[in-house]
Amino acid sequence: QDEPAGRACGKVILLGEHAAVYDKHVLAVPLPEAIEARVRPADGRSRLRIPAWGVDEPVVPGRRGSSAAVATVALIMRELHVAERHYDIEVDARIPAAMGLGASAAIAVAIIRAFDLQLGFRLDNRTIDTLAFECEKLAHGTPSGIDNNLATYGEPVLYTRSTASRTKPIQLSEVPPLVVASSGKRGVTKDMVAGVAKRYASNQTLYDTIFSEIDELSVAGSVALRDADYESLGSMMNVCHGFLNAIEVSTPELEKMVHIARLNGALGAKLTGAGGGGSIVALCPGRSHDVAAALKKAGYAIIRFSDS
Ligand code: MEV
Hints:
With about 300 residues, the chain is α+β, with helices and mostly antiparallel strands. It contains 9 helices and 10 strands. The chain has helices spanning about 70-80, 105-120, 125-140, 145-155, 190-200, 205-225, 230-245, 250-265, 290-295, and strands at about 5-15, 25-40, 45-50, 55-60, 85-95, 155-160, 180, 270, 280-285, 300-305. About 50% of the residues are buried.
């Protein structure tokens, strides 16, 4: 525990997932204190440990059956020109894997920062973000870059892939009253994005219309978020969830969670991230306790919770 920790945020998408892959706007806020990583020189071969996820594996580039996290570490070590050296990499994960909360990008950023601290490179955030984006490509093929942006900068953003280098954080006057709950079912981003791509290819005009609508929701939602206009933002989240259902990334479980949240006072509730499992986010001014309690009673894990 004596090595300095590299840290990274997770993310919660409020509006715009999937459309983001088609260069549309996506609105997201950080999940602070999500991942910490420490790197120390080792004698034998390099090893990755993520105790909270049951990962304890040697880092052997290209080895069949290695986890995605090991592939990420191997890529980072190669890009930082330390692939020939040996390290113990220890990760403290405070968010679950494959729950739509940006854990894979956060792991990448925290590990890059831990190597940076260990080796004294003094990498700037843009370099860290770019390398984490390469890791995301490895993990899910055609990422928009929203996850590595949030992991690196940890600030609320309205983001598009095409203007990524000019993304400015949104200044919030208060912490939005959000409840984030996980279904406990893994959602595999790569598969969900591939499924949408397949349906997009056979329904291009229809899907372009849906993505344009989602784009407008994200842009308008960023203003509502900034102004703490939760009535408007909540409605937009509900409509966005309808579109996500329409492009077939929701599940019966996510629908159930969304309904529990709305029945217990959420102004808006939707799946967040790639779907197919994973998590929901609910906007619940004055009702966060009720919504969190109802979701918990129904057997779902509360990941984050904030009240206004
Ligand atoms: C995943 O966090 C969000 C998606 O839009 C994929 C991406 O933007 O890279 C589903």
